[in-house]
């Protein structure tokens, strides 16, 4: 068998629950938001473009410094030099720890205050998920990002789900500055609120997740420079001519359509599911994206 | 920076908590068990070998039928033909749905009773995890497998964590027979107790997880046959000469060392962790494996 049914949107026998694809398709135009070019990065690899939405609400100092590095073309001709199976892909200057070989960071700062979590307030949207979480007392989505909250301390942080982009650092909590980034390709919730999250991959995850793995004994860092994936360039979308932009939209996570998707994911009335999960974990839901229909062709 | 500290076992400042690697290293010989050759599969791909431990306790009919298929060389010259990002890699005969082109299943059965969960009893070891779960009321490890339990119904099932190998099927719950298998490479808890789990990848996950992804719109099935990864052969370890076996051992999940690993993963006293997770999810822990020292060289 082809096993296509493993995820196919087979309709319910009698219950007539629409498939997730059809729920997304029925979303109103106002339920989609376009990525802000001033907070979107394009990382061009030999096989394609990775699009990252930045998270200035959560880590303003890190995002500002990262933009400085990008605008000064720090990442051009660096590489993805670490891919640890079921954990992260990491990129930047592989020689950044070697003062003799490290690239100049130009006008960017070398140390930043830790921005691992922040206080939350009424200005932030938050769509809670109903099934709890192993690592936090509340989880849900804020402005498209998977987030966790602690009502006791009124702190919030972005969870390390698939596609989350964080700022690597050394043991010194101020040593992260954005010159070394990682994207989550596996299980990484254990590092929640211990690193600054800078954004989230919106498009192009397979360009990172399907890279060859480095040796686990060396936490995924490639043994040979020839194994690295070159980074051609990283640019802020706002600095790229409109004709060369991606024009991506993300479904608003405070929209009725998003709530319908959460419900459908939890209760799967598809005929394939004999015994629907009835629950949904924070990282078990990917926020839908699309090309802005005004630019689709 | 190299960002090695992201997972490095930096020792505690004052608390002297050993790293996970050193905890594993200190395990007694009796805390390791060797894989049973009668329940271990070797899947040989062009780039290396994937080792799968079978789970006859959980799905005896599926495992028996899978062994029949393997012993009759059903999988030789089939392929990995579906890789859906953040979900599964799937293999077998890509033409199995086409009666004119499908490979013969020989003496194997074409339909099997669903074995999606089973009753648990005192014969099964179970090491519970203390931090709960989004999808089940109890989770832990049984005989090396990540499992969930429902004390109300006394049913247990293997969870779809990274590396879990399941039996694909069509909508008909009896249509899975083991001729099409998948390994979890991402988030897949949502299909728990809706498919029969046949085993777990013990070694070689990167050979599957780093394969190019198929198009999500086609649930990861490659558009062109040339994209498939050929399967050279699949053999039961017991049918392979001893000199060509892998001699792998898995840490017993009911051992004191395993309990120490769970504790270390939850409380990470490494200097890197400013704010340790304090919790551990079922799929957040990979069971340690090693080459039997009697065969290491």
Q: Average pLDDT of chain A, to the nearest integer?
A: 93
Largest interface: which pair? Answer: A-B, 72 and 73 residues
End-to-end CA span of chain A:
35 Å
From the alpha carbons, calculate the radius of gyration of chain A and give it in angstroms: 20 Å
Relative helix content of chain A:
10-25%
Number of domains of chain A: 1
Assigned CATH architecture of chain A:
Beta Barrel
How many DSSP-defined strands of chain A?
Answer: 17
Q: Sketch the major β-sheet of chain A.
A: 9 strands, antiparallel
Assembly state (oligomeric): homodimer
- Spans of chain A of at least 5 consecutive residues whose pLDDT stays below 50 are 4-14
CATH fold-level assignment of chain A = Cyclophilin
* Net shape of chain A: globular
Helix/strand order of chain A, N-terminal first = HEEEHEEEEEEEEEEHEEEHE
The largest beta-sheet of chain A arranges its strands as: 14-4-5-12-11-13-3-2-15
The fraction of residues assigned to DSSP E strands of chain A is: 25-35%
In CATH terms, the superfamily of chain A is: Cyclophilin-like
Q: Total helix count of chain A? A: 4
Helix/strand class of chain A: alpha+beta
The CATH class of chain A, by name, is Mainly Beta
């Amino acid at each position: 068998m082809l096993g296509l049914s493993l995820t196919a949107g087979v309709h319910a026998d009698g219950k007539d629950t629409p498939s997730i694809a059809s729920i997304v398709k029925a979303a109103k135009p106002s339920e989609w938001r376009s990525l802000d070019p001033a907070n979107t990065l394009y990382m061009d690899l030999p096989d394609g473009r990775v699009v990252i939405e930045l998270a200035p609400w959560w880590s303003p100092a890190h995002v500002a410094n990262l933009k400085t590095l990008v605008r000064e073309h720090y990442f051009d001709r660096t590489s993805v030099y670490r891919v640890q199976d079921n954990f992260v892909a990491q990129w930047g200057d592989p020689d950044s720890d070697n003062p003799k070989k490290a690239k100049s960071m130009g006008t960017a700062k070398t140390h930043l205050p830790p921005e691992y979590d922040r206080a939350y307030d009424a200005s932030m949207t938050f769509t809670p998920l109903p099934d709890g979480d192993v690592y936090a007392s509340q989880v849900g989505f804020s402005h498209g990002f998977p987030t966790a909250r602690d009502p006791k301390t009124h702190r919030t942080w972005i969870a390390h789900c698939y596609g989350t982009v964080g700022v690597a650092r050394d043991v010194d909590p101020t040593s992260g500055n954005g010159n070394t980034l990682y994207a989550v390709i596996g299980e990484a919730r254990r590092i929640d609120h211990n690193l600054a999250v800078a954004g989230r991959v919106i498009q192009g995850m397979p360009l990172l997740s399907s890279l060859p793995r480095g040796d686990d004994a060396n936490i995924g860092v490639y043994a040979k420079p020839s194994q690295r994936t070159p980074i051609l360039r990283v640019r802020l979308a706002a600095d790229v001519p409109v004709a060369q932009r991606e024009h991506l939209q993300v479904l608003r996570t405070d929209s009725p359509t998003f709530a319908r998707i959460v419900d459908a994911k939890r209760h799967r009335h598809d005929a394939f599911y004999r015994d629907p999960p009835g629950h949904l974990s924070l990282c078990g839901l990917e926020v839908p994206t699309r090309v802005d229909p005004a630019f689709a062709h």
